[in-house]
Design a protein that fits this description.
Elements (H helix, E strand, L loop, with lengths): L2 E7 L14 H14 L6 E4 L3 H14 L3 E3 L16 H10 L11 H16 L5 E6 L1 H11 L5 H6 L4 E8 L2 E9 L2
Parallel strand pairs: 1-4, 2-3, 2-4
Antiparallel strand pairs: 1-5, 5-6
Length: about 180
């Protein structure tokens, strides 16, 4: 069994709301991303249901005549439902303690389980080359799952868009950054 899961952070968007669309620059990035991925022989695309994630992968899906499946498990992690003026410090603490949970939010471990479940579903699927499109917070937790030294700093250095390749074999996983927006 040799599979590749391309993990994509969405392109530049107008905001953080679930219905926030891509900016004009984000739409151009989505076209560039489609060109970059055009030779990857993708069999399956799974996206966060958030509009910016779907719009990120639409150009590739259209070019390759692939359906975009949406999966709520790829939505962005909610740190808290209350306003926190010191949210960046709270976020950093949540990477140090993955069980830390703020009011109305989910812990890092809870969010990690969601995205790892998606990857595990792909591991057992027929698709050899898949794409998941998601968000910086949830992707950085997946990076941490595979590379324990990744965490808050990995989140800080993610770009819009960003692409990682997770290579999965029978007894080994390897994750590598393959494209970053300059």
């Amino acid at each position: 069994m040799n599979k590749t899961v391309y993990i994509i952070r969405h392109c530049e968007a107008t905001g953080q709301a679930p219905d926030a669309p891509l900016t004009e620059k984000g739409k151009e990035q989505a076209e560039e991303l489609a060109a970059f991925l055009s030779d990857k022989e993708v069999n399956r695309i799974i996206s966060s249901p958030f509009l910016r994630a779907i719009q990120t992968i639409e150009p590739l899906a259209e070019k390759n005549n692939l359906k975009i499946e949406t999966d709520h498990r790829l939505r962005e992690r909610v740190l808290s439902t209350v306003s926190m003026p010191d949210w960046i410090e709270k976020l950093e603490a949540a990477y140090t303690d993955l069980d830390l949970k703020y009011e109305g939010g989910e812990s890092g471990n809870e969010a990690t389980r969601r995205i790892v479940d998606v990857v595990n579903d792909l591991r057992t699927s027929d698709a050899e080359n898949s794409i998941i499109v998601a968000h910086g917070g949830i992707i950085s937790l997946l990076l941490h799952y595979y590379e324990k030294n990744a965490g808050f700093e990995a989140w800080r250095t993610l770009s819009n868009p960003d692409v990682y390749a997770l290579k999965i074999s029978e007894h080994h996983e390897q994750i590598e950054r393959i494209w970053v927006e300059a």
